[in-house]
């Protein structure tokens, strides 16, 4: 086990990574170039899970020299947030819902993040005036029935500020559902205080969608934080990114999905990696992802089955990627064991 710094502090600098045994001294100058472009943060709870710098936990958060290699297909804004932002902090991609990004600060900075060009410890906190402009836009668009708080990580807000946002959204008559997307329960579970949980109170349908990519992220502390949310009658969904070296084997993916279900978290989305700059080392081809899920069909409960999705580059929305079991032309289906059958169940 790598011994993190015993300061209880988040690691943000290359020199701290080296001191914690998460980077080699000879890599220092090159990693400084990575750090100048992309933010680094590894909070204590996540440090404690790292067994080696290149293990499935360390790989997600420790800077790597490969991040400076930009592939031709990679884009600074791979899912078109900027083009679909009518006012600061709002992204409107689908007719009935909108994103509200009140800040661009996270408890940790994933090395594969699709917003990695924008997020960081100093960035993106909306002013009161900008928030009022965002609320006005939402009020003026009655087709919006759902607001997704994202960022950054909304649970990095103070309870006072988060509570004010929740009250403002709850006061808009046509908003029926509020979602919070977060990494906090696994990355910084100590933040899930009674005050923060109180701030999430609303009379609207409230959902928490938490991001986790490996079974080890469900530490006892993380499970306690998740249970505290659930105790407030807030259902928790799970979303993950399919990542090379993290969850790209049948056993690793199965363990992740089982860990979610055991924590009463319903696996929601398994995302195909978005082509953000410098993330090619995490890429798993779609055909391989489809085969992984097909391998798990019939092997894990349907409660653990996520929707495998691609967020089409350019802001064109998410689409499911399968795997497919129906052959409409031949009027056959493939069973979980791979046998092709007619729709009446007989072998084809």
From TrEMBL:
Say yes or no: keyword NADP present. Answer: no
Q: Which residues carry this modification: N6-(pyridoxal phosphate)lysine?
A: 318
Q: Name one Pfam family in it.
A: LAM_C
- Whether Glycosyltransferase counts among this entry's keywords is no
| Ligand binding ([4Fe-4S] cluster) | 106, 110, 113
> Could you tell me the keywords of this UniProt record?
4Fe-4S, Iron, Iron-sulfur, Isomerase, Metal-binding, Pyridoxal phosphate, S-adenosyl-L-methionine
- Tell me the GO molecular function terms: 4 iron, 4 sulfur cluster binding; isomerase activity; metal ion binding
Family stated for the protein in its record: Belongs to the radical SAM superfamily. KamA family.
Which PANTHER family does this chain map to? L-LYSINE 2,3-AMINOMUTASE, LYSINE 2,3-AMINOMUTASE-RELATED
Q: What is this protein called?
A: Lysine 2,3-aminomutase
């Amino acid at each position: 086990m790598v011994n993190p710094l015993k300061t209880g502090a988040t690691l943000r600098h290359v020199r701290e990574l080296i001191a914690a045994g998460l980077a080699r001294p000879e890599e220092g100058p090159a990693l400084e170039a990575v750090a100048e472009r992309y933010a680094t943060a590894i909070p204590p709870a996540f440090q404690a899970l790292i067994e080696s710098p290149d293990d499935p936990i360390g790989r997600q958060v420790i800077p790597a020299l490969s991040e400076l290699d930009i592939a031709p297909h990679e884009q600074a804004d791979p899912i078109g947030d900027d083009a679909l932002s009518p006012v600061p902090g709002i992204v409107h991609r689908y007719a009935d819902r909108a994103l509200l990004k009140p800040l661009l600060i996270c408890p940790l900075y994933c090395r594969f993040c699709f917003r990695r060009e924008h997020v960081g410890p100093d960035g993106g906190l909306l002013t009161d005036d900008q928030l009022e402009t965002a609320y006005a836009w939402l009020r003026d668009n009655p087709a919006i029935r759902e607001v997704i708080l994202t960022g950054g990580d909304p649970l990095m807000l103070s309870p006072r500020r988060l509570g004010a946002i929740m009250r403002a959204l709850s006061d808009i008559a046509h908003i029926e559902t509020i979602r919070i997307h977060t990494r906090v329960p696994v990355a910084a579970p100590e933040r899930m205080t009674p005050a923060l949980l109180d701030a999430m109170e609303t009379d609207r349908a409230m959902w928490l969608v938490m991001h986790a990519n490996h079974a080890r992220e469900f530490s006892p502390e993380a499970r306690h934080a998740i249970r505290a949310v659930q105790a407030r009658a807030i259902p928790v969904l799970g979303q993950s990114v399919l990542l090379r070296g993290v969850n790209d084997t049948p056993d690793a993916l199965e363990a992740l999905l089982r860990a979610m279900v055991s924590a009463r978290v319903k696996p929601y989305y398994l995302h195909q990696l978005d082509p953000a700059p410098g993330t090619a080392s995490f890429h798993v081809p779609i055909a391989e992802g489809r085969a992984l899920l097909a391998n798990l069909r019939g092997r894990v409960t349907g409660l653990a089955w996520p929707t495998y999705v691609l967020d089409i580059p350019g802001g064109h929305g998410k689409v499911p990627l399968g795997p497919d079991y129906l052959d409409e032309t031949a009027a056959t289906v493939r069973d979980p064991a791979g046998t092709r059958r007619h729709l009446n169940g007989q072998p084809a």
